[in-house]
Amino acid sequence: RVKELLQCHGMFQIALASRVAEWDSVETIGDVFVASFSKSMVLDAYSEYVNNFSTAVAILKKTCATKPAFLEFLKQCQESSPDRVTLYSLMTKPIQRFPQFILLLQDMLKNTSRGHPDRLPLQMALTELETLAEKLNERKRDADQRCEIKQVAQAVNERYLNKLLSSGNRYLVRSDDMIETVYNDRGEIVKTKERRVFLLSDVLMCATVSARTADSNALASPGRKYLLKWSVPLGRVEVVEYGSSDGAGENRCPPVHPPESLAVVANAQPNQVYVGPGQLYQDLQNLLHDLNVVGQISQLVGSLRGNYQNLNQSVAHDWTSGLQRLILKKEEAIRAADCCRIQLQLPGKQDKSGRPTFFTAVFNTFTPAIKESWLNSLQMAKLALEEENHMGWFCVEDDGNQIKKERHPLLVGHMPVTVAKQQEFKIECAAYNPEPCANSEAQLDPLAAAHGFLWIGSCTNQMGQIAIVSFQNSTPKVIECFNVESRILCMVFVPTEERPAQPEAAARGALGVPTICLGTEEGSISVYKSSQGSKKVRLQHFFTPDKSTVMSLACTPQSLYAGLVNGAVAVYTKAEDGSWNSDPQEVIQLGVLPVRSLVMAEDALWAASGGLVFTIRTDTHTIENQLEAHQEEGMVVSHMVIAGVGVWIAFTSGSTLRLFHTETLKHLQDVNIATPVHHMLPGHQRLSVTSLLVCHGLLMVGTSLGVVVALPVPRLQGIPKVT
To answer: Which helix (H) or strand (E) holds 316?
Structure first.
């Protein structure tokens, strides 16, 4: 496909030259990028080139090694070329081209002022090229997956496994070289073995490289063969973490990663015994026990009435100091042994009475980062196997490709979050506090899906209820639930301020602590503390002007904005002690219809009242622009979300989402979510948007029919068009 690639860039060069010739009258270049690289021909030509690149490089290396005349010819070509470029460097040029274009466009955008006619075309070009690069990467991943599993199937020495690997929907998640460590009964390391661990979508396999092919180190090497040690169903693989039981990890510090990640193996001295974390951990428990006993002895020594040699407070202090030094050394040894260590509990064959048995496998990865990444891949693959994720996501353009489905979000779990005794509670709003525990001594669970806390507000007709879900462990759980005297309609998370706390502020407890603000139907705002270990602590409670119902909330470090039912936005500022002033600094009247949605952009607040959207400067609190979000009368904005330089807007009725440019307010795209929903739920039920979120390259749309629609959008600072 080299000719087609050359043709693409030849046409791009002609278009650029033409634009440069008329630069004085047409000062735009972004549209040239869009026109040149939005054609399907570009994607097809590049896909084949990129997918074939590894094979081409392997052939080049092999030919250079086996044909000296060819190698000599390449050297002569390199020496005679003006920039002394190698053939390999030339082959990588097309691969590097789009990332270079993306960086170039980002630089151009930094130097193109707002209001310049080329700014929107450059942002469109950035979006186009990012989308193209993402599609190329996706096709490359799919091609690599198919190629790698084919090679593994050929390399493994068992026919049954060959068949297992070749079956349709199974795919290879990753394969890693690891060191397997074998221990004796005393917890001492007996031997280590090099292993290749294959993580498939539903099977975990461990193999050793056949001795005859061990010198061939590349997985893609056709001569490499594997001897299978074991294979187990992925759903039955359990990770064993030391110190993960209740109370066990209290005295352990956060992991520190030493430079010698495989110190246990790499620096092994002859005639020296090395022990694993299991024995080290037991030694640590013994030392902690002894420290406690020595503390008691020290107290008894202090109560002696006579003076005795070697039996006084000074000697007792030396014992304590010595034990503390040993404990620190032992903790360091545990961290060094544990930072790259993965211990798995795996199902074995049944015993004679038919009961299940288990065996343990211990591996060391080559860096702490590989361990963390591998554990995350294992968790995601196991999650994908659970019954609730078994169906995967319903893809409208479903081509039966299981790999694509697995890249969609996976359901971690669901739980009741309301304590309903008499009335029926319905979830109304939520706010996420991403801050991990404030206590730096506590150790975060590496298998936790997220860290921090989720506050969920539920309502009946008269009252509200708050549930706080903690994500500090691998299993999220409700840690607090309490009632609120009025219906909760909105929430916002207020992060800690980056300035030193004053003594009087510390007394109030408002500054330096992350908080959650609740807006209620009765027209009040409540401020609650939201940090590790804190139970229900209400720091403030105040009413809005005329006790007007709070429909929406947004904040900056210094200002809190409340969208009210009477069409106004109340602006609250911080007092000296870090709490919010209970009287608004300003009330901005937008109209008469409720302000249902508030969103913060860089230096502006976006506020929706009825069918109009207003942009308000955060420094002067003046209305800068206003936008009519829909031409039809009676369309009321319900949700807004900003990503890059675009804002997606949803309405209280209808199933259409609209995208606008945040700088020019130009309308860019409409998407009707009824199409994918009715593919899944036939019949023409009325449909509306109930929630909106942009994250991880997806526009997530919650609907009134209980279906979530996920639409791909670019991740960079371009236009968040649905691609």
So the answer is: helix 313-338
- If residue 478 lies in a helix (H) or strand (E), which one and from where to where? strand 477-484
Strands 595-600 and 586-589: unpaired
Q: What angle do CA 458, 461, 463 make, to 5 degrees?
A: 55
Interatomic CA distance for residues 678 and 687, integer angstroms: 10
Give the number of other Cβ atoms within 10 Å of residue 561's Cβ: 24
Q: What are phi and psi of 686, to 5 degrees?
A: -70, 140
Residue with tokens 């980056």: 498
- Asked if 195 and 206 count as a contact pair (C-beta separation under 8 A), the reply is yes
The H-or-E segment that residue 587 falls in is strand 586-589
- Residue 112: pLDDT band (50, 70, 90) is very high
Q: What is the pLDDT of residue 156?
A: 72
Identify which of 65-74, 161-170, 305-314 has the greatest average pLDDT: 65-74
pLDDT digits (tens, 9 = 90+) for 436-455: 644 443 445 555 556 788 99
Tokens at 354, concatenated: 């038919």
**Separation CA 446–CA 438 (nearest Å):** 17
Contact 608, 597 (CB under 8 A): yes
Q: Maximum distance among all alpha carbons in the chain?
A: 103
Tell me how many degrees the CA angle 638-641-645 measures, rounded to the nearest 5.
135
The CA dihedral of 525, 526, 530, 533, to the nearest 10 degrees, is -170
CA angle (495, 496, 502) in 5-degree steps: 155
Summarised one tens digit per residue, pLDDT across range 153-178 is 777 766 666 666 666 667 788 889 99
Measured between alpha carbons, how far is residue 548 from residues 517, 565, 595 in Å? 16, 6, 11
Give the SS3 label for residue 39. Answer: coil
